[in-house]
Fold each of these.
Amino acid sequence: MMLDRLSHQAPDALLALIRLYAADPREDKIDLGVGVYRTEEGATPVFAAIKAAEQRLVDTQDSKSYLGPEGDMGFVNALMPYLFGSDPTMGGRISGMQTPGGTGAVRLALALAQKARVKRVHMGVPSWPNHAQILADLGMELAPFNHANADGTANLDGVLAAINGAGADEAVLLHACCHNPSGIDYTADQWDALAEAFAASGTFPIIDSAYQGLGHGMEEDAAGMRTLLAKVPEAFIAYSCDKNFGQYRDRVGAFYVMAKEPGGLDTAFSNANALARAAWSMPPDHGGAAVRIILRDPDMTKLWLAELDTMRARMRSVRDALATAGRAGRIDLTPLGRQNGLFAMLPVSKEEVATLREEHGIYMAASGRINIAGLTNANLPKFIAALAAVAV
Ligand code: LMR
């Protein structure tokens, strides 16, 4: 039979963890798995700004007829000042299109790079596991380098070697901020060095920005990427609103191209549109439309930014508490206080991750990645005690 020719694939490990956690009856279980923001009460509520925008959308939308493969360009354009600053098109050199979530944007960026004959992508590891999965699915080669040093800082030499050594059929993929899974971002000086290296080598940068606003603020988290874009002729940027607008399941993303000259965008997007049409035809509209409504209304924008501030402050306070705790067993928690965003990596083995899950009801990715937002004042003492007991 035809279906017998398929071999079974393991479920995505991170998504499988959601099910495992849900099936665990222990009341004091702790979910540090998939990357969603949680309040001190463990909830992932819909932003009030999104609720208000959705209400306005319901009241005013008069058609759900098709848009094109580019989606809602009002949404795509309204985001641009947040990514690219006061000259958001950089003199007409940047334009974008909507995608189904950040994953759709990364997929489109890599597929378009492949169409432009990029065969190999350099990437700091560990990275978001789906980066490698998308590359493999496209039949592109992954050239890994170590993203982090043992002391919890970014490995500048590793990324510079990748940029300087990349050939014409290669690109380098960077995280804009709040590195997933390590939380280790490049410093401003390091971004300067990266920008110089990209400019001098002519290597093509692909930037994944999935967590803007969760590190130090919307402007602050874009600064490194803007430093880079100011120096290079071309780049792709994949963007997600899943986290900073809490739109996870509504799949809200965008893909931007920066070309050397404004005239270069037309051909790039003719290809990007064709790829999107063949893959998903057009992106889902609802979530992007809600973001557009927020960003065109100063009061709603204020409300959204205040909600984002609250999220960021909570994650910062969890990081401060971990850093203040100092150690758990052999693990030094102090670098976590200097890192950004939802994630951190703990130097624990797969076996220790399994023990934490089975004996203590603490769920994290097998890589040792934890979701900082899964920790609260209430569960932090239990987490640190369990880690100290396991990571001796
Ligand atoms: C994560 O890394 O947990 C998130 O980006 C969710 C996902 O799609 O993997």
Amino acid sequence: MNLPDYASWQKMANDFIHQSKAFIDGEYVDALSGKTYETVNPATEKMSAHIAACDANDVDKATKSARAVFDAGHWSRMAARDRGAVLQKLAGLVQENANKLALMESLNVGKPIMEARMADINLASQALKWYGEAIDKLTDEIIATPESVRATITREPMGVVGVVVPWNFPLLMACWKIAPALAAGNSVIVKPSEQTPQSILKLAELAIEAGIPDGVFNVITGIGPEAGAAIGLHNDIDCLTFTGSTAVGKKFLEYSGRSNMKAVWLECGGKNPNIVMADCPNMDKAVMNAAMNVFFNQGEVCAAASRLLVEESIKDEFVERVTAIGKTRIPGDPLNPDTNLGAIVDKNQYDRINGYIAKGQEEGAEMILGGDTATVDGKGLFIKPTVFKNVNNDMVIAREEIFGPVLAAISFKNIDEAIKIANDSPYGLAAGIWTRDINVAHKAAREIQAGSVSINSYSSIDIALPFGGYKQSGIGVDKSLHAIEKYTNIKSTWLELD
Ligand code: NAD
């Protein structure tokens, strides 16, 4: 693959668009109020773009457009195979525009350009392609009845789906929802995070080029409590699918109750346990996974392995080896293809992470790496990889989601204690278990309360596998064929024949 070098990425960044409108009914539009807000590049702390600040009126306009095209059936009643072909074409257009999209993610999130290019964009394109390929393979059901009856169970698109997503993987998190929702025949109104709207706006433009009718794919830019709340509260939006914090996820449940009882699907936070037993079959791999899964994307990952549970007899050596890998993650200009640690998305998140680091020290955890901030060429919001050992699971740094490059290492004596600690959390998103003993592996996989458990690996990211949370990590799943169920209603039809 021919990828741009550092100088080329910098040149592309200089030509970056400094203004972004919303996308409604197939075209870019200003907010009806004319208001805008600014996004800031966290690696330089300079303004990067003026973005349309939409409110309830814009949401209403987008909903009317989305509803009209849904009712007209241009997309909702198109043959599944034809919809699938359009989504596959869109996946191809994402690949053709991959460098541009990766640049948007890097400049807005502060993430290393190569991670944006190779992970975010490729996986977003894969999701569109996979659902495009899958949708015409699904069949409905006929139940056993007397001969005089034909009874069917069919799935129908819900109508207008609101999609509200976070900033950590802007395009990817959106595509995990948009792809199955569109494949099923719905219209969508997407609300990107205020920090990171541009890649999703570009996707909406590419969707028109791929053949998705005007009004099927709308993007409302704006501030969460205004634009996001207006989507949650709208009476003509049938379903709301959200990725973000648990606190905001709960608000969407309230919005639904206060409006039209729309279906609400939530992918929320995590405080994920990664359990390493002394009989781990591949220590090198376990060390590398433990480190990469908390430092990748600056630790701004819902499934980050942020609680490292290590068996007492190996804890010192294991944590030291993870720390040694942490030292190789060096803050750098996200546009430099060699950079492996980017900036933190914004000042709020930067302060929040620093607050947790201070709290860990106050509570008596032993900080053996990091704890300090950094700049690159005198600028930017960077935090160095940080490792705490001798953490107790009652400490705030073990209970709350930090969403930064901060590892809390906790030791345990046996598998029962490890599982007890793992489950002693309000969250239940992902978990890992490293052991040679199949009985221990199976026990952990069965007893850990989490939507995904990896054995002798960490983080299962295959698009065909469901991804979702137990407890306060969420309701429903993204990815896999099961995600399509979230965006369809089930209909029973009973036909009596003469
Ligand atoms: P967030 O909850 O602050 O924001 C998410 C979205 O909700 C944004 O679009 C935001 O504008 C909107 N929003 C914020 N306040 C709102 C309100 N009052 N009403 C309506 N909408 C509102 O989350 P974030 O800071 O963007 O992202 C980080 C969080 O996302 C972390 O908690 C992380 O675990 C979670 N996350 C979860 C998954 C998953 O799959 N489970 C994946 C990625 C991120």
